[in-house]
Amino acid sequence: MSTAGDGPAEPNARAESFEPRRVAVFLLVAFGLAGATALAVSLTGGLTDSPPVAFGLPLWLVLVSTCYMFSPSVANVVTRLVTGEGWANLRIRPALRSNVGTYLLAWLVPGLVVAVGAALFFALFPAYFDPDATALRGVLPPGASLELVLVAQVVQGLVLGATVNTAFAFGEEFGWRGYLLQKFLPLGPRRAVLLLGVVWGAWHWPLIALGYNYGFGYPGAPWTGFLAMVWMTTAVGVFLAWVALRADSVWPAALGHGMFNAFAGLGTLFATAGAPSLLGPTAVGAVAVVPWVVVAGVLVVRSPAFEA
To answer: At residue 181, does pLDDT exceed 70?
Structure first.
């Protein structure tokens, strides 16, 4: 959707100077709302004893999917209001017609890299690989084809990732890649994307402390979980920044983010019980992230989008 307030921004436009006041306001709102939401989740049963609400969904999932995930978008809006920045350069024009290739990359690359990451995890830790997908077979009706179910899972990921997941991912990306990245660019594009990756990861820390993504039973919890999350967000964030800068739009980043979330649990279909959550096989595991680190390294070094 485009609006009259979108403004005639040039592709990959760079701000002339760093704006610490606006960055500070943005971070205060984004982290404050996220922290308050995490506190509410903690006080209402955490992630394990949260009461059901609408449609049987647990309260924690509703709060995280709305208040937490949309806190960067709220921060974008509040910062513009508080600092008098106005509504130019919102970067919400899809710019689809001139960036079809970018959207295709945002749609297809995340699932492929997530699959490679899961394969790497199982190659390094074969004891946790279950080629028969026993857990999945156990919930299938008798005679169901595992192969067809897996194909259906992939198709579902491609569809839901590009629709429902992208809508929720926009709540983050309108803030991260749509606003804060632009404020960091005067520091240098490469420094900007890496700094944003760290900020994005730290924003997840209240949830990690509640057991999100990694649980509790891993060595060094929750501190090693904090580090693993930053490792992931920094690597994946480079790709999301790259597609956003190529199109000068937040939507490719939202699509890529949605697709990453859609396929993040792919590796668990072939995992045995007891797989180390901190390392994999989910896409947020430190080992499963390694292919993303390779992608990020190539982009940071070779892409014109990250040249000053």
So the answer is: yes
